[in-house]
UniProtKB/TrEMBL annotation:
One of its GO terms (cellular component) is membrane. It comes from the Bacteria. Belongs to the autoinducer-2 exporter (AI-2E) (TC 2.A.86) family. The chain crosses the membrane at residues 6-35, 55-76, 148-171, 201-228, 234-256, 268-289, 309-334. Keywords: Membrane, Transmembrane, Transmembrane helix. This is Permease. It is a multi-pass membrane protein. InterPro entries: AI-2E-like. It is found in: Membrane. PANTHER family: TRANSMEMBRANE PROTEIN, TRANSPORT PROTEIN YDBI-RELATED. GO terms for biological process: transmembrane transport.
């Protein structure tokens, strides 16, 4: 290799290292791009009614902020209070159940004495020890609320950064695209502009499919929780729809709050809530999501699952949250750049 080639190779390695070090910031920028794409689609729809671009963008951002504030007020405070109450009531309920069990054991001991009850008393002692451990665990959880809130502030700052970047991108998207394309060699700029158009279309289709999927899951969850008369049905339904953005893991997390709240009412309700969410997620993952993804973007289920594991491993929770849109964009880039522009023209 010549000196110039070594210099170019070293520059590429340095660029990769720098990009890796700032990967979390790049993820925030990509999140802003996804959000800006969704809002831009909404703004274009509003413009059809003869409204100027600036006002359409203002209405889109206002709807986004209003939606987040509404969801936060409807979901976070009541669920937080219920889960905090659950942390104190579950050990008490177990202790009360243990007392009733002791009364039954004392009664049966007078009726059916024998060695069997001696073994049962050993189980009773183990259950008592388990209850004490649960009480010791529950108290730090309740006391750790302040630490949880402190960690949430970091997420709030990240969200504010994403919101500011989204507003900037929406204000003049053409200028930012032009600035990015200028970093590419001149012979490939026109081709890259077309590829970015395809990425924007793919992201827009994914956003539409994700919104439909979230809405169906939220409505079905709301209907089922209302039938079961589980408190905070509306808040839990919204939470189920939002967590559905995280395939495989999100639906599993969404069932925990309604089951915990149902446990405070009647234990049998918790089982029915689990069955309800299981049926909804089976219908969503086997029928609704495959149909929407086939209609909107062509993503193979195995690729979707592998991408979640990859982005979770290397980029953390934010990578998991953005796994699907990253995969959608990555699929377009692989098809257009790697396959069509490189491999299809590769000559021996």
């Amino acid at each position: 290799m010549t000196l110039g080639q070594w210099f170019g190779f070293s520059a590429i390695l340095c660029a990769i290292y720098i990009l890796w070090q700032v990967r979390q910031a790049l993820l925030l920028v990509f999140a802003a791009i996804v959000l800006a794409t969704a809002l831009n689609k909404l703004a274009r729809w509003i413009q059809r009614f003869g409204i100027k671009r600036s006002w359409a963008v203002f209405f889109s951002i206002s709807l986004l902020i209003l939606g987040f504030i509404t969801i936060f007020l409807l979901v976070v405070p009541p669920l937080f209070d219920q889960l905090q109450e659950l942390a104190t009531r579950v050990p008490r309920g177990l202790e009360r159940g243990l007392q009733r069990l002791n009364l039954w054991i004392n009664y049966l001991e007078t009726q059916l004495p024998g060695e069997f009850w001696q073994n049962l008393f050993q189980v009773d002692l183990q259950i008592n020890a388990l209850i004490q451990q649960l009480q010791r665990i529950g108290n730090p959880l309740i006391g750790g609320v302040g630490a949880f809130v402190g960690n949430t502030l970091g997420g709030l700052l990240g969200f504010l950064l994403i919101l500011v970047l989204t507003i900037m991108l929406l204000a003049d998207p053409v200028a930012y695209r032009r600035a990015f394309i200028q970093l590419i060699p001149s012979f490939y700029r026109q081709r890259l502009n077309g590829i970015l158009d395809q990425c924007e279309i793919a992201l827009g289709l994914w956003v539409v499919g994700a919104l439909i999927d979230m809405s169906v899951v939220a409505v079905c969850s709301l209907a089922g929780l209302l039938v079961l008369q589980v408190p905070l049905a509306f808040a839990n339904a919204i939470l189920a729809g939002l967590l559905n953005l995280i395939p495989n893991i999100g639906p599993t997390l969404s069932v925990i709050p309604p089951m915990a709240i149902a446990l405070l009412e009647d234990p049998w309700k918790a089982g029915f809530v689990f069955i309800l969410y299981f049926l909804i997620q089976q219908a969503e993952s086997n029928f609704l999501m495959p149909y929407l993804m086939a209609q909107q973007v062509s993503l193979l289920p195995a690729i979707t699952l592998l991408s979640q594991g990859f982005f979770l491993t290397f980029f953390g929770f934010l990578g998991l949250l953005l796994a699907l849109p990253l995969t959608v964009v990555g699929q377009v880039l692989v098809q257009e750049i790697l396959i069509r522009d490189i491999l299809d023209h590769w000559k021996q």
